[in-house]
Write a structure and sequence with these properties.
The protein is an alpha/beta fold. 30% of the residues lie in helices and 27% in strands. It has seven helices and twelve strands. Helix 2 (85-96) runs parallel beside helix 3 (116-130) and helix 2 packs parallel to helix 7 (214-229). Bound molecules: S-adenosylmethionine. Its EC number is 2.1.1.193.
């Protein structure tokens, strides 16, 4: 379970709201029960329930289990797609181990407002489910032009381009820090494609001969990256 406060041995915790409801009413834990908590700073701890009411649960942190895990240095940049698919992108990218999620507004992005709180809650829930002790960084949307303007030269930008790119595995050769860029349902405009390709750190990559939905492309690209350059054995 994710908790905001930095955890420490012997700390006394009082949980309200959703975490308390989950422990007290869903799991119906009683005093003496043990749970695993993580805070995205110090890692994962074992805690013991001291008291569990309907709205409040008190615990004592008893043992440090593991430090905050090192997360592969991969960013996922994606044009916001509608509710549902975008929730799925955040959830799957979190499970797969992405370090940073950056929504990028492009000319054909149809979504104008993003509920970052909902997306952050999706990331937390996905991290809890896959037992990840580090949350992905989720940033507010930025315009593509601004992202390109301030792009860090030492990070390869793998630009998923259905109109043509090199095979993904070839593009990741020798790429240290990397990022993946996925377009909106309507795709990138020609100008956008040219602007991205003008970046020396950009490499156009193919995800195969078919047109994938943006959410499929995001998960496919991250999975291939993890398998070729990430932390999969
Ligand atoms: N231009 C597409 C069309 O004709 O329908 C629309 C874009 S596609 C639905 C959404 C995004 O997924 C694209 O902008 C691209 O980033 C990525 N994508 C989809 N299929 C791909 C492929 N075969 N290779 C590389 N990227 C792909």
């Amino acid at each position: 379970l994710f908790v905001e406060a930095p955890l420490a041995e012997g700390a006394a915790l009082t949980l309200d709201g959703a975490p308390a409801n989950y422990l007290g009413n869903v799991l119906r834990l009683a005093a003496g029960a043990q749970v695993k908590l993580f805070d995205d700073v110090t890692g994962e701890w074992l805690a013991e329930v001291v008291g569990a009411g309907r709205k409040r649960v008190t615990l004592t942190v008893v043992q440090h289990l593991r430090p905050r895990e090192p997360v592969p240095d991969i960013w996922l940049l994606f044009a916001p797609v509608k509710r549902g698919p975008i929730d799925w992108i955040v959830e799957k990218a979190t499970e797969l181990g992405v370090d940073r999620l950056l929504p990028v507004v492009t000319q054909r992005t149809v979504v104008d407002r993003l509920n970052l709180d909902r997306l952050r809650a999706n990331a937390i829930e996905a991290a809890e489910q896959c037992e990840r002790t580090a949350l992905p960084r989720l940033d507010p949307p930025e315009k593509l032009a601004a992202v390109l303007k301030s792009w860090p030269e030492d990070r390869v930008l793998l630009f998923a381009d259905e109109t043509g790119g090199v095979p993904f595995v070839e593009a990741t050769q020798g790429a240290g820090k990397a990022a993946i860029l996925i377009g909106p349902e309507g795709g990138f405009t020609q100008d956008e494609r040219a602007a991205v390709r003008a970046l020396s750190a950009a490499r156009g990559v193919s995800l195969g001969p078919r047109i994938l939905r943006a959410e499929t492309a995001a998960v496919a690209a991250v999975s291939v990256w993890m398998a070729t350059a990430g932390d999969w054995p």
